[in-house]
Design brief:
Layout (H helix, E strand, L loop, with lengths): L1 E3 L2 E5 L4 E7 L2 E5 L6 H11 L7 E5 L11 H8 L3 E4 L3 H4 L14 H13 L12 E3 L12 E4 L8 E5 L4 E5 L3 E3 L6 E4 L7 H7 L10 E4 L9 H14 L6
Parallel strand pairs: 4-5, 5-6, 6-7, 10-13
Antiparallel strand pairs: 1-2, 2-3, 3-4, 8-9, 9-10, 11-12
């Protein structure tokens, strides 16, 4: 679906990936689940684009529900897959974190796993090759995405800032739909390696003035990046869910 001129989403509020469309081609942010490949093809067609016009795929981190179709895109189309150097092993399946589940609600968990199963998420195809990046890099891709290091959810979690479309892609640095409880609104994400560090890292996003904040899970927010950060910090301090 088109969110704004040059800005598109595939997937839904449970798991999402994004496309930045420019005259120079398309940059994909995250790769969702394997079954999102068909959604990608359909969205590109609706944009008047083809898979050959994808110039790069940038991962916010290396978790399985973000690398879904990445290896297929690399293998079949030769598209480079960018990931922070600290998450390269994670994306290649060489390092598998121990998940900390935290609070859960049956409905939230069931919705997440039902959707993941329907989209092929019960089997992960890890990347064979990656192109590494680091904090502060500006990638030579459509939209000139700038990489902002956000360690916490994982060691190599990043935000991706694309000022030309007013967008800040945050992966699981925060969420607007908790996949284990179903609660909605800006809040810390589950399955986070270092929760306190993840909250501290949000400082790196202050003052960017991005209109759109686009998480890997949950509805996109147009409330402005500083306001979203404020709400996440408030939720972390309260230690409670938002509305279900």
């Amino acid at each position: 679906m088109q969110l704004a001129p040059s800005l598109h989403r595939i997937g839904n509020d449970i798991v999402a990936a994004y496309l930045v469309d420019t005259e120079d081609g398309v940059t994909i942010i995250d790769a969702g689940l394997p079954g999102h490949w068909r959604d990608l093809e359909k969205e590109l067609a609706a944009m008047g684009r083809g898979i050959s016009e994808v110039r790069g795929l940038v991962l916010t981190h290396g978790d399985s529900d973000h690398i879904g179709f990445a290896e297929r895109l690399r293998r079949e189309q030769g598209v480079p897959i960018y990931v922070h150097e600290a998450d390269a092993a994670r994306a290649r399946g060489e390092f598998k974190p121990k998940a900390q589940w935290g609070r859960m609600r049956l409905g939230g968990v069931a919705s997440f796993f039902w959707y993941a199963a329907r989209k092929g998420g019960l089997r992960t195809t890890y990347l064979r090759e990656v192109t590494t990046m680091t904090d502060g890099d500006v990638l030579d891709l459509p939209g000139a995405p700038r990489i902002i290091g956000l360690p916490g959810h994982s060691a190599g979690s990043v935000a991706i800032h694309v000022p030309t479309v007013g967008a800040l892609f945050v992966g699981d640095a925060l969420t607007t739909r908790h996949v284990l409880t179903g609660s909605r609104g800006p809040q810390p994400a589950p399955f986070t390696d270092e929760p306190a560090q993840a909250i501290d890292s949000l400082t790196h996003l202050e003052g960017l003035g991005a209109t759109w904040v686009l998480p890997g899970h949950g509805a996109p927010s147009r409330g402005g990046s500083d306001e979203v950060i404020r709400q996440v910090r408030a939720a972390a301090s309260a230690g409670t869910d938002h509305t279900s």
